[in-house]
Design goal:
The chain is mainly alpha-helical and about 240 residues long. It contains ten helices and two strands; from the N terminus they run αββααααααααα. Helix 4 crosses helix 8. The chain is elongated and about 100 Å long.
């Protein structure tokens, strides 16, 4: 009996890309492989980018600044003030001409002559010795009027050094004068404008270390050693009686 043709009994085998017998291509299989390749590259790139981000974050955290915050340029701070002569000594040697020149920094907001009009800031005639907020009708900030006591030497020096520190919440926008000598010159000149307060006395200088140091042990013991007779030596003869 004749055998039926093989192709009539079974379908031809298919490879991964289509029909071997007909040579047709299966587009769905190749497209899936290509999409998987692209997805793999995208995933790999994402993982690499994440790794770089983590390394950069660790590097930035390992170099933290020694002191947090930012320095404010142009504003005096307590740590910036060098040790120097006391305010009383600076006032005693103040240069009034330099003080008047420094007042040019204040003239944009203040007048100084008697009867002068208020500007952005109040008229400053006879300010030294007056109470805080002494000009009637001027809109002082509560931060300033709430300060008890007059404008004395130390108060004016602290105000000019840093208005915001002296009166937190003040309307005064001036950053301050960091140079103590410049402040003393200005304060002494302001005092001549209607106040004429007597200058504060200069404190006595502190004694030096040499003046307060106790004498050396050898120096203190020298007179006692000199007064004591040597061992075995005859005592010194008594003084002769005065002649009658």
């Amino acid at each position: 009996m004749a055998q039926p043709p093989a192709h009539g009994l079974a379908r031809p085998m298919l490879d991964h890309y289509g029909d071997r017998e007909t040579g047709t291509r299966n587009p769905s299989v190749s497209d899936d492989n290509r999409n998987n390749t692209i997805a793999g590259w995208v995933l790999g790139a994402g993982i690499a980018a994440l790794g770089v981000t983590i390394l950069a974050d660790k590097a930035s955290r390992s170099h933290a600044p020694e002191k947090a915050g930012f320095a404010i340029v142009g504003e005096a701070t307590e740590s910036d003030a060098p040790a120097g002569p006391p305010l009383e000594a600076l006032l005693a040697s103040a240069d009034l001409a330099k003080g008047e020149a420094t007042f040019a920094k204040c003239a944009a907001c203040h007048t100084i002559e008697q009867g002068g009009a208020n500007g952005i800031g109040p008229n400053l005639w006879a300010t030294m010795g007056a109470k805080h907020g002494h000009i009637p009708g001027f809109a002082y900030s509560e931060a300033l009027t709430s300060i008890a006591g007059p404008w004395d030497w130390k108060a004016m020096d602290a105000w000019l050094a840093n208005p915001r520190r002296y009166a937190p919440g003040t309307k005064m926008s001036f950053a301050g004068l960091s140079n103590p000598e410049e402040r003393a010159n200005l304060i002494a000149w302001l005092n001549t404008k209607g106040s004429n307060l007597p200058l504060p006395p200069v404190p006595a200088a502190a004694p030096t270390d040499a003046a307060t140091t106790a004498p050396a042990d050898g120096a203190a013991a020298a007179p006692a050693d000199a007064a004591a007779p040597a061992d075995g030596a005859a005592p010194a003869p008594a003084p002769a009686a005065p002649a009658q």
